[in-house]
Amino acid sequence: MRTTNLFILRGYVGQEPKAFDDGKIAKVSVATNRSWTDKKSRERIEKTDWVTVTLLNERDAAFVLKNVRKGAPIYAECRVAETSYEKDGKMIYGVDVVANVFDVLSRADSGEEDAA
Q1: What are the residue ranges spanned by the domains of the chain?
Q2: DSSP one-letter code for 115
Q3: What is the pLDDT along the chain (116 residues), one digit of tens a residue?
């Protein structure tokens, strides 16, 4: 059986990208929104989820650091990877979202109309 580890993300950059390892790696915080109607109160509820995307490809990281700004709509195809490290004698476990594809969208591509 063939397996797939694919996480597709479309959202907005929440803050300026951060450089690591002398700009060879970049991390971008991306906001995605979801909404639903509460069954009891019939109130519309909105929530923002934040995902930190890591770019390990040096060329992609350089592009992101130079061209991506807070508020930009983006599209990313990523893989999810487990991480662990030891801190103060305890193992700390986490999850990294690592981008294989990272594109900056125009406002039209993001489904958002430009206010004119």
Answers
A1: 7-35+44-104
A2: P
A3: 999 999 999 999 999 999 999 999 999 999 999 999 999 999 999 999 999 999 999 999 999 999 999 999 999 999 999 999 999 999 999 999 999 999 999 876 556 554 33
Backbone angles phi and psi of 45, in degrees to 5: -115, 135
What count of other Cβ atoms lies within 10 Å of the Cβ of residue 72? 19
For 7-35+44-104, which CATH superfamily applies?
Answer: Nucleic acid-binding proteins (2.40.50.140)
